[in-house]
Design a protein that fits this description.
5 domains, Phenylalanyl-tRNA Synthetase, Chain B, domain 1, 6-stranded mixed β-sheet, single chain, Phenylalanyl-tRNA Synthetase, Chain B, domain 3
């Protein structure tokens, strides 16, 4: 944004060197990015050689005329004003920043307008039909103007700030805009039907030709300035060609208003129309300045165009809302910054920014002026003081910390153990999105672990693929496994540790989970085969063992997420802590190219059930192994068989492990032969074969009686 140095000095009482002023503004956050000498012009508007007046020339404005004086140096500054500071997008606002930075005092604005006998209320009428879109609308009337080119000093200042001069009336409104930041518009009063202004919503399909000569179609969300019969301007954006100032204009109505920033922004973007007015209105404008700017523009037009200002202002809402107040602690300010900030400096800075600070002990209360829309919290005031104090003055000191080892809190120890367990079984760790599609959520929902609460919908999803929060890790992990298979992977073993989300009692609950996905081939190079349930079961048992979970029960599962007859639930103490099996055909929505075996473990339940591993000395006495072949019904689960064998054996039965299962010739269709290996070991002495035989036959006898099994 371009500024004139000479113009800035009109608002500052002092003679701070240009270099110092630029440096202090930059340090305060108003970055002066470029400084160029201004080309001087004479009283007729012609360019002078650069040698005249040194770095530039300046024509002093005296009253309503122009006085040629000694050329005054001027520079054109390109200043980066951030979007949250519309109050500094004008010369007075930037001068206020300079005053706060210690570069002089801010001069008061001139007040008072010489008015004629005619009353503005008798010459025009203003009606605001949409007060939300236009909180305040002020209008002044100037009669008997003569349209002519602007004087050289005015044209010079506008051109140096990148604004093309038009005529004395239009240039006066642009001058006030650049001077105090309030966008204005001048209407030819004679071209307003009924000499009336109505601020209303546009009618659907309503058309208007704007000042740039383009016909634009409006909709019902747009706010327009209209007369008694048609729209004459797009509020906060651009005026209409049907009421513009021309050489024939004699009476002028000056608009100075405040518009809803969101409405202006939406209209400007939809129409692709970026103007000086919309640039400021869409960031917020000073409601109090609307009246002041109307007075300044009316006085300037009367001086430049020889007219007479009608008495009074047409003001739709002259009452100002109560100003906001923000209080903060001086001690807290220093603690926030990290070094001592002198209280006198803080109060001086806030006063220079016209925040009217009031001190009561350690508490400072500031009244936020209407042009500072960006100040809402005490931290905003901290920043105001700090940027003028100087960030470079804050010492670069690391905060003190206790010199003792830290520790992981919450679920971190559990999830780290789970990741170690995944690494132990050779799984590659995967990371999938917590957001999933509704189809993926449905595919993984039919599981005891996924039915612990309702679905959590995302309020503003990026796409339909991220519409809800996952209740299971299985869908995302199965899809990742399928993606690896499609890209040529022959064997896939993926693992993930993450959280799932449930809607419970009006809140969102989270649980820690571990999931596995196995697909493709397994086995040695000379014995490759397709992965099956037993491969998955071995991986899950290894992971549970690493987590310290023992004495689990595997039983067939009827969960919809798993294919019928190819899934299992893992329980402990009557509670399901894991599911495992082949991902169901219902997952066709995931486009899996081959069967994917999946498992999900409830880490919270696993942590509750886990025992702390403890070292046991190596056995001193030899073990005796004995195989036992049991013929039993298919309905008898292996876990039930092992539990019965363990209960029937002696105290020195060390372990029971599977050897082989046989179904075929000599075995009924509803039966199976299961061979298990029993390891007998006494902790205090060696066992004799007779002791082992006696215990072995006693165990068989009890099993035959309790389970109705045979051993043939």
């Amino acid at each position: 944004m371009k500024f004139s140095l000479a113009w800035l000095r009109d608002h500052l009482d002092g003679d701070t060197p240009a270099d110092e002023l630029a440096a202090k503004l930059t340090a305060a956050g108003m970055n002066v990015e470029l400084r160029e000498p201004a080309t001087p012009i004479d009283a007729s508007g012609n360019s002078l050689p650069a040698s005249v007046g040194g770095s530039g020339g300046h024509l002093r404005r005296e009253g309503g005329g122009v006085a040629q004086g000694p050329p005054e140096p001027d520079e054109i500054w390109d200043v980066d004003v951030t979007a949250n500071r519309p109050d500094a997008m004008n010369h007075r606002g930037l001068a206020r920043e300079g005053a706060a930075a210690g570069c002089g005092a801010l001069k008061p604005l001139p007040s008072g307008v010489t008015e004629g006998a005619a009353k503005a209320g008798d010459l025009a009428k203003v009606t605001v039909e949409d007060a939300a879109g236009c909180p305040r609308y002020c209008a002044r009337v100037v009669r008997g103007v003569t349209i002519a080119p602007s004087p050289a000093w005015l044209a010079e200042r506008l051109e140096r700030c990148g604004v093309r001069p038009v005529n004395n009336v239009v240039d006066a409104t642009n001058y006030v805009l650049l001077d105090v930041g309030q966008p204005l518009h001048a209407f030819d009063l004679a071209r307003l039907a009924g000499h009336e202004i109505r601020v209303r919503r546009a009618r659907a399909g309503e058309r208007i030709t704007t000042l740039d000569g383009v016909e634009r179609t409006l909709n019902a969300d747009d706010l327009v300035i209209a007369d008694a019969s048609r729209a004459v301007g797009i509020a906060g954006v651009m005026g209409g060609a049907n009421s513009e100032i021309s050489d024939a204009t004699r009476d002028v109505l000056i608009e100075s208003a405040t518009f809803d920033p969101r409405r202006v922004r939406a209209t400007a973007r939809r129409l692709g129309l970026k103007t000086e007015a919309s640039h400021r209105f869409e960031r917020g404008s000073d409601r109090a300045m609307a009246r002041t700017a109307a007075d300044l523009a009316a006085e300037l037009i009367a001086r430049l165009a020889g007219g007479e200002v009608a008495a009074g202002v047409l003001d739709s809402n002259p009452e100002m809302p109560a100003p906001r107040e923000i209080a903060f602690s001086l001690a807290r300010l220093s603690a926030f910054v990290g070094c001592a900030i002198p209280s006198e400096f803080a109060v001086k800075v806030l006063a220079a920014l016209e925040l009217a600070p009031r001190v009561a002990g350690d508490i400072v209360t500031c009244t936020v002026p209407p042009w500072r829309m960006d100040l809402e919290l005490a931290e905003d005031l901290y920043e105001e003081v700090l940027r003028l104090f100087g960030y470079e003055k804050v010492p670069s000191v690391l905060p003190s910390a206790a010199a003792k080892p830290g520790r992981r809190l919450g679920s971190w120890p559990l999830t780290e153990r789970a990741r170690d367990a995944l690494a132990g079984v050779g799984a590659a760790e995967a990371f999938t999105y917590s957001f999933v599609s509704e189809a993926a959520e449905a595919a993984a929902a039919g599981s005891p672990l996924a039915e612990r609460g309702g679905i959590v919908a995302v309020a503003n999803p990026l796409s339909a693929r991220m519409a809800v929060m996952r209740r299971s890790l299985l869908a995302g992990l199965a899809e990742a496994a399928g993606g690896n298979l499609r890209r040529g992977a022959e064997s896939v073993l993926l693992g993930e540790v993450g959280r799932v989300f449930f809607a419970r009692d009006g809140a969102v609950a989270e649980e820690e989970r571990l999931a596995l996905a196995l697909a493709g081939s397994v086995g040695d190079w000379d014995a490759v085969r397709a992965a099956d349930f037993l491969d998955l079961k071995g991986v899950v048992e290894a992971v549970l063992s690493e987590l310290g979970v023992t004495a689990t029960e595997w039983r067939p599962a009827s969960a919809a997420v798993l294919a019928a007859g190819e899934g299992a639930e893992v329980g402990q103490n009557g509670r399901v802590i894991a599911v495992a099996g082949r991902f169901a055909d219902a997952a066709a929505a995931l486009d899996l190219p081959a069967p994917v075996w999946v498992a999900e473990i409830d880490l919270t339940a696993a942590a509750t059930a886990a025992h702390v591993p403890a070292f046991e000395p190596l056995p001193r006495f030899p073990a005796v192994a004995a195989d036992l072949t049991v013929r039993h019904k298919l309905a008898l689960h292996y876990a039930e068989l092992v539990a019965a064998v363990t209960a029937a054996g002696p105290a020195w039965l060390e372990s029971v492990s599977p050897v082989v299962r046989y179904r075929g010739e000599g075995v009924a269709p509803d039966e199976v032969k299961t061979t298990v290996r029993l390891i007998y070991r006494h902790p205090e002495r060696s066992l004799t074969q007779d002791e082992v035989n006696a215990a072995h036959f006693a165990l068989m006898d009890r099993l035959g009686r309790e389970l109705a099994v045979s051993f043939s």
